[in-house]
Amino acid sequence: MQANRQTQESRSHQAQAARLLLQANLAYGESNSNGLSHIQRLKARQECRGYLEEVNVLNPGNAVALGLLGRVEMDDGQLEKAHALFTASLDAQPGQTQQYANLGYWALKTERPALAEQHFLQALDCDRQSAAAFCGVAHSKQVQGQFDVAYLHYRRLLEAGAEWNSVYSGMLTCAQHLAVDKADSDLALDAIALLKHEGLPHQEIGRFVGAIIRQQYDLDNPKAEIFLDAACEDELLILALQNTLMPDPAVEELVVMLRRAILAEVAQTVELRDELQQLALAIAQYADRTGYALAAEDDEERLVGAVNDSLKAQFVMGEAQDALIGSLMISSMYGALFHQEFAVQLGQWNPVDWPLALQPVLAASYYHRAEEEGIKQCFDEKAEELSLDKTDVPQAWPAWSKLAYRAESSLKSIMATELGLEANNLPDTLRIMVCGAQSGQRAMELASYLADVEVIAVDESLANIAKATRMAAESEVSNIVFWPWSIAQQFVADGHKVHWVEVGRLPSPAMTELSLAALVNSASGSGAIVHLHTAIAEQTAGDLQMRKLIAEHSLQPTRSTLRQLRRMVLTNRQDATWQKLAQEDDFYSLGGCRDRWFRPQDEAQLKDLMAMVSNEVEWKLVKARDEDGHSLATRPVQTQIQAEALGSEVQSVMGQNLSVYFQRRR
Questions:
Q1: Matching InterPro entries, A to Z (predicted)?
Q2: Is the pTM of this model over 0.85?
Q3: What is the side-by-side strand order in the sheet with 480-483?
Q4: Tens-digit pLDDT profile for residues 206-248
Q5: 175 and 155 in contact (C-beta within 8 Å)?
Q6: Cα separations (Å) of 224 from 52, 216, 218, 254?
């Protein structure tokens, strides 16, 4: 009788444990749902933990519960506890695919990708169909730098229907490292899939897409025939022009040639036929992204001038909107509509009043520029632009459209898990200052994906500040502001402190009244983190020669001058002086060229900053990474930084492209 009662109680406990496990799994799923806020996900994680604790009381040593609790601990940054729980789960029930996969992700978190790969392969030995384990192998290969192998793994996952954000994001990351040396239809289809997928930073695969187009059109062959009608039907070319900037001189020449062919046909037929319109609109978007760097011959300039005069007359005559559309398409391939004499008349229509296909071009060429001009009026620095011709006003750079994919997290958890710091005593909301934010992609990512921060993004380019402010408003990111250095300096002078300083592009020598080291020192409270890079970009032989030419001839950064300097480089791009410069992303935008040559980064600012953080009484190096993202031993790096600051003849840390994190001691 008693044995029967015990059996019934045991079955009752097992049933209750099973119900609790189901609830725990549902709560854990919610804790990783991108559709919920960070606070909601933390609450779901706590609920999951509570259910699992009840399971442990009813059924101690339950293998599934141990494994799921390990996932909860790993998400909370308790990596040692997580490893012990995964191992205990496997001891209780050997051969679990899920636990080997969990150990794989644990190894990735602890920066051991080779070990991670072993665990994922063990998971696949248990279940050959496990997409999560196969995806883990891909992630491991990627972190180990085996980008081609990882890329093929991601492709297989997509073919199998595992269309997860992490798969697309991993594939895009790998694509940036692939060399394309022949026409490949599979790669072209991959590129189309990536460019069509919303939420990916398409601007980061411009080089990959450009290389595919270079091979498809045989652009290395001077006798290759290019057909305008074929280009109009090329889905990859159209998507690339709409979404990326391709840093390839041959691709730039292709775009210039296609644009000229469209204009020539219109000049002959006095009509922009329907088949050409999508390509014309895509070229207009691309030209805007380059800051209108694309060279145009004199006859093209005359024809476009006539088109603009005609548009001006049409506005005077009060012609209907439909009668303007073809001419606006042609005009926007060569210059911003906001800069034209008829720009004021365009304002009578709202963006949504135009045909759907035309709206992205009108937005980039007119409406966004108008909005950004309004933002600039709020800052004293706008006075410096008042004497410039409209076409010479600096353009924002880099030209980005989407943020990189990240799972939402918190800065406190990153400080605990990535840097091993105590974060419990920090306030609910932490303040980050991004110095040299440029047009704001990195700053926006921090504001968007960290739930416990407010971000102050600082830059010396008013164009960058205006663009980033507009994009933040469009994206409804409210925990970020974009300021010029003058306002940031006043903010710090008023006694405000920040918990994290991120150093991006360094100020230029034109910022004579700014000391970055002094600003960072004043802004950093006790325990604050300073994250900086030890290398300075934009230092090719071509850049140095260009700055020398500019100084010798007192050149000004007008559109005409920048185009002439670019043309000189492109004409002589096989010359050793210019070769590397012609491969740089920045070179393919007038905004990028202007920054590199007329507002270069000031090396003295980085030296002063490095000297400041080398003081081990005030600052402690808590993490150092190489350019591949691998962690380095901090002691040798700290010793090298200190020796360099004291003038010792050691190998300079500057130029090694390290990512270093310092914490203020007091």
A1: SAM-dependent_MTases_sf (IPR029063), TPR-like_helical_dom_sf (IPR011990), TPR_rpt (IPR019734)
A2: yes
A3: 480-483, 453-458, 430-435, 498-503, 524-533, 659-664, 619-625
A4: 999 999 999 999 999 999 999 999 999 999 999 999 999 999 9
A5: no
A6: 66, 10, 6, 11
